[in-house]
Amino acid sequence: MKRMALILLMILLWTQAALAQAYRPLSAGNTGTDVVTLQQRLIELGLLDDKADGIYGDKTAAAVAEAQRLLAAEGFAVEQTGEADADTLAALYDPNSEMALRTLRSGSRGDAVTELQNRLVDLKLLDGDVDGIYGSQTEEAVRAFQEEMIRLGETSLDRDGVATPQVTSLLFSDLSGYGYVAPPFFDESQPLSLTPDYLYSQSCLAMDVVSGEVLFEYRCDERMFPASTTKIMTLLLALEHGGLEETVTIPSCAADVPKDSSLVPVTPGERMRMIDLLYGLMIRSGNDAANAVAELCAGSVNAFVDEMNARAAELGMTGTHFVNAHGYHSDEHYTTARDLATLTRYALTNQTFCQIVSCLSYTLPATSKRDALTVQNTYEIFDPASPSYIQGAAGVKSGYTSHAGFCYVGAYQSDGRTLVAVLLNAPGRQRGFSDLKRLFAYAMAR
Fold first, then answer.
1. Considering 108, 124, 231, 262, which one is annotated as catalytic?
2. Whose CA, among 22, 184, 254, 382, lies 20 to 30 Å from 7?
């Protein structure tokens, strides 16, 4: 018996020595295979967005600190130091810690949070930025998901706003079986079943161009920011001013645009045909071109903006007010989906307008300031190889600012019909194009 006890004691001591060797403490500046093993574990857990290079740098330390934070939240005796001490390493490889380490909660950061946030946006639960930071908005969105799933019968969930592996797995599953209504679960084979719940945009409208009949609408009279869809009016007025083949000199106001503006670019003093400037305005969405067009047509940007507002009033655009010619954000620069559809319906009667807004590639001839410049529209809705492709789509104009979200005014032609659809404040281009495709399909099925 004593011999057996001695053997057991020796095994225990050997095991402790082995564990101590296996969990050799690591910290900033360490290198080697042990660091590689640690990094591989952190990558596997989604805590490290980097390669396992065997160098314990700032990213590895931050990932270890995050692991320690998650472990401590579940009662593991570790401190959030960013140093991989023996206790931390033991917990990292402990099967009982797997759930804690794969849980996302307030304060979590990284790619796993970004993926979670994108899914929450897909389910129309999150309106905030997808920034990879698990803040209060993300926590509230997760809580809203938990509450909705409990309502739909999944009673095993808590209402704590914590994304455990169970919650995350459920979140990314096909929820249509629960009767969850959200854009990812729309049946594309049933276009007439479309409701606003299956759209991402905050405001939208589909209209028959010939009759003017509104075929689908959602919050279409609510004031929204138009971003660069503003340039539809800028182009229309420029075409009505005429002189498209005349050579113009780009005025100095072309350079007077915010630093983060989209540009053609055009340069003050550059000489080019007005028609070339207009193609740059629409295909490149150049704010510099918009200012140049405004002054060339009306003598000053302010005078042109007055013309924009007067023309809006003539067209019955009662929910619109312009303060610039390009759409850069201002709280006093706004419109509605109905107004943009009204404007575009009218503008599509102008043949040159149609040619410009449906053009996918145009070469601006060389000037004294630059070589020939080819501008292209590369949106996926015009690419037959893209899942977002919309056969029959024909322009018109996109827009984006952080305040406006993604905006799009699109024309569509098929079976002898012409449609226009407007979507405002969609959470990103791909989701906006998903809405556009559904709006056109619904309108064609009417």
1. 231
2. 22
Residue among 97, 203, 262, 285 flagged as catalytic: 285
Instruction: Mark whether 231 is an active-site residue.
Output: yes
Catalytic residue (one of 97, 108, 201, 228): 228
Q: Is 314 buried (19+), middle (13-18) or exposed (0-12) by CB count in 10 A?
A: exposed
**Residue 279: what are its φ and ψ, rounded to 5°?**
-65, -40
pLDDT tens digits, 373-415: 999 999 999 999 999 999 999 999 999 999 999 999 999 999 9
Q: Is the pLDDT of residue 15 over 50?
A: no
Cα–Cα distances in angstroms (integers) from residue 86 to residues 19, 65, 79, 166, 197, in the given order: 9, 14, 11, 29, 51
With 70 as the cut, is the pLDDT of residue 19 above it? no
36-51 core/surface letters (b: 16 or more CB in 10 A; e: else): ebbbebbeebbbbeee
Secondary structure of the chain as H, E, C letters: CHHHHHHHHHHHHHHHHHHHHHCCCECCCCECHHHHHHHHHHHHCCCCCCCCCCECCHHHHHHHHHHHHHHHHCCCCCCCCCCECHHHHHHHCCHHHHHHHCCECCCCECHHHHHHHHHHHHCCCCCCCCCCECCHHHHHHHHHHHHHHHHCCCCCCCCCCCECHHHHHHHCCCHHHHCCCCHHHCCCCCHHHCCHHHCCCCEEEEEECCCCCEEEEECCCCCECCHHHHHHHHHHHHHHHCCCCCEEECCHHHHCCCCCCCCCCCCCCCEEEHHHHHHHHHHCCCHHHHHHHHHHHHCCHHHHHHHHHHHHHHCCCCCCECCCCCCCCCCCCEECHHHHHHHHHHHCCCHHHHHHHCCCEEEECCECCECCEEEECCCHHHCCCCCCCCCCEEEEEEEEECCCEEEEEEEEEECCEEEEEEEEEECCHHHHHHHHHHHHHHHHHC
Model confidence over 33-65: pLDDT tens digits? 999 999 999 999 988 988 999 999 999 999 999
Evaluate if pTM is beyond 0.90. no
pLDDT given at position 22: 59
pLDDT digits (tens, 9 = 90+) for 127-150: 978 999 999 999 999 999 999 999
Going across the sheet that includes 417-426, the strands are: 214-218, 203-208, 417-426, 405-414, 393-401
On the 0-12 / 13-18 / 19+ scale of CB atoms within 10 A, 120 is buried
